[in-house]
Amino acid sequence: MTPAILALNLGLSFAALSALCLSLNRHHAESFGAKPSGRRVVLLRVLGWIGIGLCLIVAGEAEGWGFGPVQWIGAMTGAGVGLVLLLSYRPRLVATAGAAALGLAMTVGALLHFA
What one-character-per-residue DSSP string does 59-111 give? Predict the structure, then answer.
């Protein structure tokens, strides 16, 4: 298991789950103070599901399809636990943390690509 691939998967997983979380009226209102528009709900859901699929592809291609899905499930679980804790104690930080996680994943991805 490569730590860089795990960091990439955790970042993508957290960003994807954050997008799906923020597509729900309650969590969006807790984070931004207003309910999302219909277009924003669709955009967040599409981006969230694309992110989850991308995480699976990255894990499978990087770690092999024998171990990659196992790492993907672990990364999704870890990201989910972190998101639940953040929603419980600091719901206003979900959008910021999701964007930071996406930035981390993009940075690690770029470093892996150019290394």
Answer: HHHHH-TTTHHHHHHHHHHHHHHHHHHHHHH-GGGHHHHHHHHHHHHHHHHHH
| Full-model pTM | 0.95
Q: Which two tokens stand for residue 26?
A: 């309650």
Sequence length of the chain is 115
Three-state SS for 16? Answer: helix
**At what angle are helices 25-32 and 3-22 packed, to 10 degrees?**
100
The per-residue pLDDT for range 21-60, each reduced to its tens digit, is 999 999 999 999 999 999 999 999 999 999 999 999 999 9
- Encode 98-113 in three state secondary structure: HHHHHHHHHHHHHHHH
> Dihedral of CA 64/69/70/71: which sign?
positive
First to last CA, the chain: 17
